[in-house]
Amino acid sequence: MLQVVIIDDEPKAIELLKNYIERLPFLNCLESFRNPLDGLGFIQYNQVDLLLLDINMPKLSGISLAKTIKPSTKIIFTTAYSEYAVESYELNAIDYLLKPISFERFLKAIVKIKNVENKEPLSSVENKSISLKSGHILHRVNPRNILYLEKQGNYMFYNLNEGKRIMVRESISDALTKLPNYFIQIHRSFIISLNSIESIESNHLLIKGEKLPIGKKYKEKLISFLNIK
Fold this sequence. Notes:
Radius of gyration: 19 Å
CATH architecture of the largest domain: 3-Layer(aba) Sandwich
Largest sheet: 5 strands, parallel
Number of strands: 15
Mean pLDDT: 88
Strand content: 25-35%
Shape: elongated
Number of helices: 7
Strand order of the largest sheet: 2-1-3-4-5
Oligomer: single chain
CATH topology of the largest domain: Rossmann fold
Order of helices and strands: EHEHEHEHEHEEEEEHEEEEEH
């Protein structure tokens, strides 16, 4: 379970982020603060894994506050102003979210935390195309364009962004071997791209409006994969 603290002087922004956190079973909102000084005091005496931090606040800016945080606490900046982006990345922030923040964008930032932890970052694999042989046709596909895979009998169906489906004769293990580390099996018949998740419920998730089941056998692995601890 990833322990999260929110510091933002806007009540509506806090409520939105709390709602997003509640939708992800591997996140827990420890506390939220409108006063950055109160938030700083809490963080100094409690174990916080992730800080969702506004930048433009009275009394103490998010940038100044971030400079006092111990390295073990990861930071995602949330702000309505784009001009702080360069300075935020100089502080090694995980991400920089511009308000209004969609759930999809929030989830990608959370997934990025896991990718930073991995030895193989997304940037090293996302531009490498893979080969998919469908009958006598060989397709070259960028993994970033793959939403999810569905196993039906002896065949795997690759579902792509543009609505295209490619049928390949292969096993689940064969598919996982060729795919980057942001693909994970969630069911005996489904592999998904973490970048494509729209929302996660207790026993299913949504990708492009499609409800995909999360098997009991794979649920713990999915949560563990997204969890930073």
